[in-house]
Structure formats: C-alpha cells, structure tokens
Specification:
CATH class of the largest domain: Alpha Beta
CATH superfamily of the largest domain: Diaminopimelate Epimerase, Chain A, domain 1
CATH architecture of the largest domain: Roll
Structural class: alpha+beta
Largest sheet: 18 strands, mixed
C-alpha cells in the first residue's frame, strides 16, 4: 500500500489515495499505521476518496480505529495532497472572506484555488494559497457551529452549554461545549502549565455526560484576540494541534465572553488564525499543510 505522511502543525496523519487503492479494513489499518513504535506513527488515518457530490471525499480514523466526522488539520493536508497529486484541478475562488484571510497569512501567494470536500460534517469548501505550484496555506470554511446540547451531543438541557460546572478528578471546572461536526469541551484556566492533561483528558473524554465521548481543550487567554491551547483528542490522546478544536475554542470564547470573534490560537505545533464570521455564522480556519514523506506499507 502506497501512503503519504503529512501534518498540520504536528497533527499528523497517514494518507492513502483511494482513487487508486482499495482499503478493506480502515479501522484496523488506522491502529496499525498510527503506532509510533511498530507502525509509521501518526494521530490517525485519512482516506482520499472519489466523490460524486464534491471534488473529493474524506474518511478519517483516529489512532484507536474509531471514525471521526472531521479534522481541521487533516482536511488542509488532504487538500494539499489532492492538488499536488493532480486529483483536483481547483476552481476560481468564490469566498471573499477566505481570500482576505489567505492574503494576510501568505502575502506572496501566486494563485488561490477553491475545492470542495465531502466529510462526515457535510460538504466543506476550502481555498488554497499556491506559491510556485505548491500549497502553502489553506483556508477552511468549517461551517456553522452546533450549540444545542442534544446535537453536540452532551447530556444537558437548554439551548447552549456555556459555563457548565464539572467536578472531575478533584477539580472544579467550568466548561463550554461546541460541536464542529465532532464534540468539543472547552475549559479556560489562568495557567496551562498547571493542568495535568494526561490525567484530566481521558477522564473528561470518557465522562458519562458525553455519549460519543469528547475532545478536550484547556485554554489560557492572552488577550481578547489571542489564546494558548492544549488538546486531548478523542481516540488519539494528546496531540500537537486540533483544527476543529481551535474552531470550537474560537466559538466558545465568544459565548463565554472571553475572546473576540477573530483570534490567533497558539498550539504546541504552531499557530492557527480563526474567525467566527457574524454575517454567515460560519467559522473560518487558516493554517499550513506539510508533507513529511511517502512510502510503502507492507501487506498484512
């Protein structure tokens, strides 16, 4: 099996071109290739799929083999892979918000192209900043945030889950829950270095309040336009970055009156620019995508 390893800010995945190859047991393959000692090493597996309703299809599996609906870092890499391997041509861009964000993030852009990707979150539109024929930055229209607890899902009543008390592992915490196609619980704290994420992450992920488990984020506010965040990803553990998580943090900051609609998020793997646009209620995410290497996985 031919594969390519890629990462978005250190959030790394193994990509397989399913235009040319057929994967029969992706859940098992995800576990095998993700192992950092006996496999390739990654946070999961992403399949690049043909699609009738969009330019591409995407299926994403966590390191434990569970399938997730979306991945903000993974989809940026998928777009780069598809464009640079001639799986898509790219169309002229239509989203002015993305163009403005990309031109700010990558001022030496030669061209901007637009593609669509079918995900578990639905069809998403991405715009690619091209420099010398390579994708340097990608803007993802992440869609509208899902705020109703029943739809996130989290076992709470009401229209939103903002500032909800949670007592766990001897900690009294306040959480705000948002779904960006997958569930996120956001916690604000004064000092991130005082958070034992290795302990709190799995305890919160598997809490009975979350019927589909949850991604966990601790956030330190630097200013209304800037945050530092750390992530425990559902099914993968501590990761260097989480795109859907950063989008959820952007939304949670507004709901909890912590931050503005536009923020710069500092993650262990690098920075993401985010905007919760008030006009269309969509969240936009801008960040890089990087290819690491290509190889062959032996048939098992």
């Amino acid at each position: 099996m031919r594969f390519t390893k890629m990462h978005g800010l250190g959030n790394d995945y193994i990509y397989v071109n399913c235009f040319e190859q057929k994967i029969l047991q992706p859940e098992r393959l995800a576990v095998a290739v993700s192992d950092r000692h006996f496999g390739i090493g990654s946070d999961g597996l992403i399949l690049v799929m043909p699609c009738e309703n969009a330019d591409l299809g995407m299926r994403m599996f966590n390191a434990d083999g569970s399938e997730a609906q979306m991945c903000g870092n993974g989809i940026r890499c998928l777009a780069k892979y598809a464009y640079e391997n001639n799986l898509v041509k790219g169309k002229h861009p239509t989203q002015r918000i993305c163009q403005k964000l990309l031109q700010s993030a990558c001022p030496n852009t030669d061209e901007i192209y637009e593609i669509t990707v079918q995900t578990g979150r639905g069809i998403l539109t991405l715009e690619l900043a091209i420099v010398n024929g390579k994708v340097q930055q990608v803007c993802v229209n992440m869609g509208q945030p899902i705020l109703a607890p029943i739809d996130i899902p989290v076992s709470l009543v009401g229209q939103q889950a903002v500032g909800i008390p949670l007592y766990i592992e001897d900690h009294n915490l306040l959480m705000t829950c948002v779904s960006m196609g997958n569930p996120h619980a956001v916690f604000y704290c004064p000092q991130l270095d005082q958070i034992d994420l290795q302990r709190l992450g799995p305890a919160i992920e598997n809490h009975k309040m979350f019927p589909q488990r949850v991604n966990v984020h601790f956030v330190q506010v630097v200013s209304p336009e800037e945050v530092i965040m750390r992530t425990w990803e559902r099914g993968s553990g501590i990761t260097l970055a989480c795109g859907t998580g950063a989008a959820a943090v952007c939304v949670a900051g507004v709901l909890a009156s912590k931050t503005a609609h536009s923020i710069l998020a500092h993650l262990p793997g690098g920075d993401l620019q985010l905007l919760w646009n008030q006009e269309d209620n969509h969240v936009y995410l801008v960040g890089p995508a990087t290819e690491v290497f290509t190889g062959d996985w032996p048939e098992q």
